[in-house]
Every structure is written in C-alpha cells, then in structure tokens.
Amino acid sequence: MAQQATSSGMLAEQKALKALAWMTEQYLRRDEGVLDSMAMSSGELALGVLAEHGLVTWLHDGVRFASWTDEGRKLLDRQK
C-alpha cells in the first residue's frame, strides 16, 4: 500500500508519529525529561513504536522508562 501525503505534505505515518510523540511528551514525561510508561500497556506500546523509529531510547530495564533521542527532540521542536 502506497503512503499518501496529507494536506500539509507530510506522509500519514510521519503525521501519526508526530502526534504520538506529542501525546507521549504531554502524558508520559516525568522529572528531568524521563518518559515513564507508568506500566500501562498503551504507554509501553507508544514508547516501543517511538524507539523503533529512533525517537526515544530505553533506560534501565528497557521496559518502563525512556528518554528522547536527539532526533526525537528535533521532532518535538518542529512547528506543530
């Protein structure tokens, strides 16, 4: 299946990743920029998808905590 560009020119997958990144930043961010899935399967899944795309890196045990990579921070810094 071919990727289709949205009205802003972004591919649908890029737009979904950006939305997921912003939701993650808003709801899973803890002190000092640590992302915490709070042991929720949805949080773990979100962090896993972002990790697969190189936007976060796992911390400690690689299941619950993560932090933004440089690429992830760049995505968040781009205009909404």
How many structural domains in the coordinates? 1
The share of residues in helices is 40-55%
The strands making up the biggest β-sheet line up spatially as: 1-3-2
Q: Which fold name corresponds to the CATH topology?
A: Arc Repressor Mutant, subunit A
Number of strands: 3
SSE arrangement, N to C: HEHEEH
Give the oligomeric state of the chains in this entry, treating copies of one chain as homo and distinct chains as hetero. single chain
Task: Enumerate how many helices there are, as a single number.
Answer: 3
Biggest β-sheet strands, sense, barrel: 3 strands, antiparallel
How confident overall, as mean pLDDT? 89
Low-confidence stretches: none
Tell me which CATH architecture applies here: Orthogonal Bundle
> What is the terminal separation in angstroms?
27 Å
Could you characterize the architecture of this molecule?
With 80 residues, this protein is mostly helical. It has one domain: Arc Repressor Mutant, subunit A, CATH 1.10.10. The protein contains three helices and three strands, in the order αβαββα. A three-stranded antiparallel sheet has the order 1-3-2. The longest helix has 17 residues, at 12-28. The mean pLDDT is 89.
Compile the SSE list and pairings:
Elements: H1 12-28, E1 35-36, H2 41-52, E2 56-58, E3 65-68, H3 70-77
Antiparallel strand pairs: 1-3, 2-3
